[in-house]
Amino acid sequence: MVDPYSTLIGDLIDRLERLPGIGPKSAQRIAFHLLQTRDDEVSRLASSMIEARRQVRECVRCCNLAVLDECEICSNARRDRARVCVVEDPRDVFAIERTGAFNGLYHVLHGSLNPMEGIGPEELRISELLRRLSAEDIEEVILGTNPNLEGEATSMYLVRLLHDEGVAVTGLARGLPTGGDLEYADEVTLGRALLGRREFPAAEI
Amino acid sequence: MVDPYSTLIGDLIDRLERLPGIGPKSAQRIAFHLLQTRDDEVSRLASSMIEARRQVRECVRCCNLAVLDECEICSNARRDRARVCVVEDPRDVFAIERTGAFNGLYHVLHGSLNPMEGIGPEELRISELLRRLSAEDIEEVILGTNPNLEGEATSMYLVRLLHDEGVAVTGLARGLPTGGDLEYADEVTLGRALLGRREFPAAEI
User: Fold this and answer.
1) CA-closest candidate to residue B36, choices A18, A102, A33
2) What is the tens place of the pLDDT at every residue in A151-161?
3) B15, A45 in Cβ contact below 8 A?
4) Which residues are CB-neighbours of A24 under 8 A, at least 6 positions away?
5) Strands (DSSP E) found in A43-191
6) Cα–Cα dist B123/A45, whole Å
7) Which helix (DSSP H) or strand (DSSP E) does residue B141 occupy?
8) DSSP code of A84?
9) DSSP code of A119?
10) What's the pLDDT tens digit per position in A83-124?
């Protein structure tokens, strides 16, 4: 393809393409949009990126993203400090917070075990979790990894690792997603929903 | 939704959301990705944006994006200067260049007529086109606007405007797209393909 704009725009498109979920077409579209946007708008976006990157670090307690040493969740005195939900990614914290169903703390692993890509336990924030277990009064660790191969492997690894730590280790419930059609559920999900079937509590009958 | 990161990340997400094709979910995903990317990578993306925006301007001849006064197409002595293809957007130049089927020059309107959004002829680079017609030896103007309502309206406006300019005014062929199923073609496309049917040239029989 001819690049009628020297390497300047090509460079920008290349860099935009490295962002998650941005393919060649969208990278091109965004680049051209930026070139036709007001100067100061582009500068503001650029400095917002740099500023956020510079100021945001990992919370010293839970490894979530934070602006101060401790993230806002860890430094919130009204959270239940006996319960820690282990997740793979800071975005998962966002997702769980949105539910409003959890009032404990988090621990962010920053990834999942993936031997094929060379990600072992040392690449994750697992030693930080163990350190918390000895330093804090944690009663329950809720494993909130993704319901996929890597996430389940990570959970199984943690279950074994935490076996002797004297804490309850629980996992998120598996079953049919709300709002779906039984007919369209994949067989693994449906099988798990059957295996995990529950009696209706008396109050609901 | 709780924002556990003060307004810093929220700002970044907001700004990313203004980019074309980026919804709230992707903006969040990109923001978190940036926060976990190496410092210098983020700086390079940011300065690439600013640099491209600063150096790229409009070609004094065709209004396409250019790094020098004239874009690389206009300053290429091997292009056919008698033929000018009028397009709405710099991205359309990219698209036509990729085909390798056109060796003339371009003229970029930077939009299409859209009275509902207050975009009239003065908002487009139409006076620049008229100036070129009197200053250059142009024999044919090929209208390459988008095959939608606004694009067609823009073409019809230009057809009338260029009527007395002593140049041939042509439009891109309409018909069935290559690789599609006749069954799935919309009725307007199929109707136009019928109206625009052509005899097979003797060489093909």
Assistant:
1) A18
2) 999 999 999 99
3) yes
4) A13, A17
5) 57-58, 65-66, 80-87, 104-108, 140-143, 168-171
6) 26
7) strand B140-143
8) E
9) B
10) 999 999 998 998 888 888 899 999 999 999 999 999 999 999
Cβ-based burial of A105 (10 A; exposed 0-12, middle 13-18, buried ≥19) = buried
- Answer whether A64 touches B (CB < 8 Å): yes
Backbone torsion region of residue A103, taken as left when φ is above 0, otherwise alpha when ψ lies between -120 and 50, otherwise beta: alpha
Determine the Cα–Cα distance for residues B152 and B159; give it in Å rounded to an integer: 10
Q: Name every chain B residue with its beta carbon within 8 A of the beta carbon of A35.
A: 52-53, 56, 65, 90
Amino acid at A188: V
Give the residue from chain A lying closest to B76, CA to CA.
A4
Looking at residue A185, its pLDDT comes to 79
- Could you tell me the two tokens for A26? 């969208």
Distance between A150 CA and the closest CA of chain B, angstroms: 19
Which amino acid type is present at position B136? E
Rounded to whole angstroms, how far apart are CA atoms A182 and B196?
Answer: 50
The dihedral through the CA atoms of B61, B64, B68, B73 has a sign that is negative
DSSP state of B121: G
Domains and CATH numbers, chain B: 7-55 (1.10.8.420), 77-204 (3.40.1360.10)
Element (H, E) at B87: strand B80-87
What SS3 state is found at B131? helix
Q: Which residues contact A1 (CB under 8 A, 6 or more apart)?
A: B94, B97, B98
